[in-house]
Amino acid sequence: MLKLFFSPGSCSLASHIALEEAGAAYETVRMNTAAWDQRKPDYLAINPKGRVPALVTDRGVLTETPAILAFVAQSYPDAKLAPLDDPFAFAEAQAFNSYLCSTVHVAHAHKHRGYRWADDPAALAEMTRKVPETEAACFQLIEDEMLQGPWVLGEAYSICDGYLFTLADWLEGDGIDCRQFPKVYEHRERVRARPAVAKALAEEAA
User: Cβ-count burial of 94 within 10 angstroms (0-12 exposed, 13-18 middle, 19+ buried)?
Assistant: First the structure.
């Protein structure tokens, strides 16, 4: 039985969606990051990074969203959540998810997690002010260059789609109207309508 440690409103939603789409047998553990559950000793024993998500498997603990998504896709090949038979296409999926992880998420984090990079109040305020600009630039690139079709990789839904949905759903909270990116907006609403996504969202909202 897989066990996913998640926090509502965080990037762990992407892993939650992937597990649901895969039809995996799993359980969830809700973390309250506002109460610093992720820094408590019991959780640090599971994930010393002190962040979500963490996925406990029978072989050990996996962290980092792109790694968890790839693991789910490869563990449940019948769900067809990644182009597993095409090394180049799979690398494209990994490149997209890596961009979300290393660039888009970091742009967002400058609003809520500026203390990771600075202590000066003026610097923190400037990082927060800059977020709508830097994050919008990321999504403009996705809009113009990265979406290959109705789904991120083209005609087939994949692990990339739930991940893009997760981060695109942060836009309004960061002062950005998602509708200024028509492809991203339509994609976001298309993903939201999927039964597995609705189920994951309902559990996280409970």
Answer: middle
Our CA angle for 128, 180, 53, nearest 5°, is: 55
Whether the pLDDT of residue 156 is over 70: the answer is yes
Cβ-contact 184, 164 below 8 angstroms? yes
Residue pair 114/124 in contact by the 8 Å Cβ criterion = yes
The C-alpha atoms of residue 90 and residue 102 are separated, in whole angstroms, by 18
95-123 pLDDT tens trace: 999 999 999 999 988 677 766 777 688 88
Burial label for 24, CB within 10 Å (0-12, 13-18, 19+), is middle
Measure the N-to-C terminal CA separation of the chain; round to a whole number of Å: 22
Is 76 exposed, middle or buried (CB count within 10 Å of its CB: 0-12, 13-18, 19+)? middle
Which neighbouring-strand residues pair with 62?
55
- Our CA angle for 106, 160, 155, nearest 5°, is 145
User: Could you give the CA distance from residue 73 to residue 88 in angstroms, rounded to a whole number?
Assistant: 16
Block residue for tokens 């067809």? 80
pTM of the model: 0.94
Q: What is the dihedral of CA 12, 13, 17, 18, to 10 degrees?
A: -20
